[in-house]
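cache lookup: miss for this entity combination. No prior model stored, computing from scratch. Input as submitted by user K.M.:
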Amino acid sequence: MAALVLAEHDNKELKPATLNAVTAAAKLGGDVHVLVAGSGCQAVADAAAKIEGVAAVLLADDEAYAHPLAEVIAPLVVSLAGDYDAIVAPTTTNGKNIMPRVAAQLDVCQVSDVIAIEAPDTFVRPIYAGNALATVQSADAKKVMTVRGTGFPAAPASGGSAEIRPVGGAGNPGISSFVRQELAKSDRPELTAAKIIVSGGRGMGSGEAFSIIESLADKLGAAVGASRAAVDAGFISNDHQVGQTGKIVAPELYIACGISGAIQHLAGMKDSKVIVAINKDEEAPIFQVADYGLVADLFEAVPALEKAL
Amino acid sequence: MKILVPVKRVIDYNVKVRVKADKTGVDLANVKMSMNPFDEIAVEEAIRKKEAGEAEEIIAVSIGPQQAQETLRTALAMGADRAILIQTDDTVEPLAVAKLLKAVVDAEQPGLVILGKQAIDDDSNQTGQMLAALLGWPQGTFASIVKVAGDKLEVTREIDGGLETVSLNLPAIVTTDLRLNEPRYASLPNIMKAKKKQLDVKAPADYGVDTAPRLKTLKVEEPPKRAGGIKVKSVEELVDKLKNEAGVL
């Protein structure tokens, strides 16, 4: 039994979500191999080879993989799948984009967003925006799954010394092409990897008001999050969204400012170690999950908090 | 160009979900059901493409129980031209849904299929990608902008950290993200007109697709509740607790 993990990377760096996926794959009980598909991505393969518990790294270094187009990556994964009993990817937008395409080509029913592995064929996954947890058993010979990072601790990024094997490309069907990417430029940590997150909600009232959230985040070395209400209101871009339809996070400390605590937001952050809520409405549901609640006007409390640190 | 829009009947997003006491699933008896919100966005996008002269016909298709006809009527009232219900009371997993949709695509030959990125019941986020794989078509998932550019489709996608734009050969698959558009409400005259639009009812067997599930649900449980904490009176007390009690600062 061996599992193949699809590495998350940008051709330069291995993304931390890969480490959680390696832990999940190891729970399946066999060898763990990591596939690095990219262009000029030797450094990523080197980093993957150092992950503790990884037995081999498959390196597909080809211009065709410069951008992770599902139409190009899925056939590569399928061409390698014969040697594996399971194929695992982190629940990132890449994993979500590519893996069902792999599963359908293998005629397998994918298990999405796994948060726990009970047996090599039995998985726990949230349904209904995290309001219920389903335990499902897969009858497929090959398991194809995406795993939620917060469900599995990160494997140590050093300590391993896996061999790196080059693998051949599976060709490019030529039906899609990359045009451009607009990534938010930020010196702040990524939401899913941050130890501290400061989030704003509808209570922020405007996009400009997010500057006090950003200022507090910078003081704490934290990432900036937002509720769907704040995103829908146009205060902040969608890549900051925490929740069932955004990112699922579990930092050491989550500070929710002006967030009422809709179910869909709670589904994205309730696994945080410590939750702080600052809201002027003392009836807000966010206080039911917060370890520390402060009923206050956030426009006074947030700057005061920054000053007090 | 024809556009095919699959829609799913799901629990209304405002309804508080309750897990059944016997842990076999979620209680759907006497619960308000609606069209999956991401599918509403898909229907809206198809209508806008038709209004822009980029599509001639919109076909809504649903796989589900008889009551899914109501969901299809909603799509027709919004502006879809005709509908197909593949009627079944069984649970149909994303892979089987994709196989049924492939059969519909083979019969109808649309130039574009627009789906919601995920259904808010099982949250799988698979069907569009699977359909693209089975058809060998390109996919623009989690779309926030969809533009027809000659014989190609330019799709701006919401990805981790920002946006990505890809160019797809047509025919293609698109799955919708939240910010693609704001779906319209159906007007009363359009709701009345929708009752007269064509709605064909089929069975999975008509398409020769095996819909037997591959996953067995062993149990469905409520997630562990997070115990509520305490209220602090001031910012100073909060900082003190975070430093000395929680130890996270």
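stored under new cache key. Residues 37-51 of chain B form the longest helix (15 residues).
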